[in-house]
Specification:
Protein name: Exodeoxyribonuclease III
Number of helices: 7
Pfam families: Exo_endo_phos
Organism: Bombella mellum
Strand order of the largest sheet: 3-4-2-1-14-13
Helix content: 25-40%
Family: Belongs to the DNA repair enzymes AP/ExoA family.
Distance between the termini: 6 Å
Low-confidence stretches: none
Structural class: alpha+beta
InterPro entries: AP_endonuc_1 (IPR004808), AP_endonuclease_F1_CS (IPR020848), Endo/exonu/phosph_ase_sf (IPR036691), Endo/exonuclease/phosphatase (IPR005135), ExoIII-like (IPR037493)
Amino acid sequence: MSLTFASWNINSIRTRAHLVKDWLDRNPDCTLLCLQEIKCEAHQFPKLFEEAGFHVAVAGQKAYNGVALISRVPLPVTTDHLPGFESDEARYIETELEEVTIGNLYLPNGNSGGDAGFAKKLNFLEALHRRSLTLQKEGRSFAFIGDYNVCPTDEDYAPKALSPDDALLRPESRAGFRRLLWSGLTDALRCLHPAGRHYTFWDYQAGAYQRNSGLRIDHALLSPRLADRLTGFTIDKDERGREKPSDHVPVVIDLT
């Protein structure tokens, strides 16, 4: 059975609900959309999606962070936090869809909060690694999808887009991402496009989008059996050109 799902750091759902609804209307094959950085509590999430017949699940908090699921079919929430990540920040929600576990994540940026802020980033990566091992031990097919705030290689950011000591590039961040791959997961984009610059984020400053000075920080990591079903990974770059857009764009995963 084919399955299409997507991820989008929307940078405030209340500001951009109309963009999300329009995107869903134009992408009827997408069964599930995973949102990050919704910046609201569950009761503040716009009602227009449920009014239009979608099913919504939210792990939110006031003004910051927050993740959500918008689905065309009913979906159970298996957990609204990442097991082993000791924080009250809303950064993870997990569901089951057609016998596939999908973890929607918003990984800490790591540039703020000093050493403690960067340690939080590494702690999340470690907890995600443990979650990967647990799900594989259970024989589950799964995907971890969302905003990882990591550029895995130098090819994943435009020259001079980041300073060398940025938390998105630091060796410890990249090592945490590689450890996920070494646990048996597949980077969906690099599976289909092993080389080349493909960006999912363009800053609002200095004409970054117009200059294509971007970053690849929105990833989908797939378990072995799910990776065997991968047929497409699409970056919907045109969304960045909309009026008052998010600084991220949707990424879409297609499975046979």
